[in-house]
Amino acid sequence: xxxxxxxxxxxxxxxxxxxxxxxxxxxxxxxxxxxxxxxxxxxxxxxxxxxxxxxxxxxxxxxxxxxxxxxxxxxxxxxxxxxxxxxxxxxxxxxxxxxxxxxxxxxxxxxxxxxxxxxxxxxxxxxxxxxxxxxxxxxxxxxxxxxxxxxxxxxxxxxxxxxxxxxxxxxxxxxxxxxxxxxxxxxxxxxxxxxxxxxxxxxxxxxxxxxxxxxxxxxxxxxxxxxxxxxxxxxxxxxxxxxxxxxxxxxxxxxxxxxxxxxxxxxxxxxxxxxxxxxxxxxxxxxxxxxxxxxxxxxxxxxxxxxxxxxxxxxxxxxxxxxxxxxxxxxxxxxxxxxxxxxxxxxxxxxxxxxxxxxx
Amino acid sequence: xxxxxxxxxxxxxxxxxxxxxxxxxxxxxxxxxxxxxxxxxxxxxxxxxxxxxxxxxxxxxxxxxxxxxxxxxxxxxxxxxxxxxxxxxxxxxxxxxxxxxxxxxxxxxxxxxxxxxxxxxxxx
Lengths: 360, 124
Fold this sequence. Notes:
The complex is a heterodimer. Chain A is mainly alpha-helical. Chain A contains 14 helices and no strands. In chain B, helix 1 packs antiparallel against helix 2 (44-69) and helix 2 (44-69) runs antiparallel to helix 3. Chain A binds chain B through residues 207-208, 210-211, 214, 217-218, 357-360, and chain B through 88-89, 92, 95-96, 99-101, 103-105.
């Protein structure tokens, strides 16, 4: 701890964790759901900062985009469907949850005594397979970002599972709430949404000019940034998960500023859910293609094993198959995540009545 | 002329670090003043004013300071992009918040200074 940088990082960690604690306590004390939603967004941003101090930039990305961006909007959408304030609970009814929290907390604190110290070179994560991955990536996969190598090559099957989980979450929310499209058309059939939309368009030209102009500049930049994060995933922090979330953030921003109907014209619901399904199929398809070539499931050497590259490498020493496989499955992840999150957003937004300015 | 440019370069190399650090501290102080304003000001709009202007200005000054101490030109370019992003999103989000509050019917507090010191009425 005598290293000044280490002390600085420790001080930052303590400050950030203390701020997280304060925000958490405020969320527990407040009754206004709107304030609570905003504070959970602040909580996510603080955690993202904390992840950056831990050098987990890709996790910080995801936390900032999902936690502070998409889920805040989803919670606001859910709040619009229910109530603006939490019911005050009776004093004695708080004892049970308090006991559960205290017991769980003490068990977790007890468990941390078994955890290896931060940065311990002999911890399980840094020895055994972890050390092997660090050594083997350069020869096997030949990409600089070892996280991407582990995620897509060594542990490709796990990542397929995660992609499937994201897809299933999207489908489950859509099955519970409807795909958005249907509830919107039901509103239209009842004559609720259509007249409101044309009316607010006239209003909006007065008050939301600044928002529309700035979003029109920002949304393409967000899209380009998502593609950068995606295609740079082999070289630096990022990849399909982060890029998919950023793309769906662009869709959410568009629909918040220009209205859900305009967003549905640009990215139809059927396209979003089709994209999610196509992503999972693309990922699994790469695996099955490897099977048909006589390789293991998701062994990307199957893609380009027979040709020689420019340096004359053959078979397993040729890493181009790995590169193509990683790009394909990362595209699958991108499609699945972007489609699923957009589907979830539509499921919430399609049910809420059009948000008018007076509602706030 | 070349001598003059070289001496300008020397002076720049000399003042680069202190100037950058000074600007960073100035930006941090601006952000701090903004936070004080958010707590002290009487109503929603004045608080938003304190938060928005000092945050955008403070972040800009901080970024200029960081550009002075940055080791390479690429870092300066990235800082310029961050500044552009902040300069577009910061005022826009403040505008959106103020606009929403105004359209929702929240009236700004007006009156003599003595009436404004207590904390009633705002959305706190």
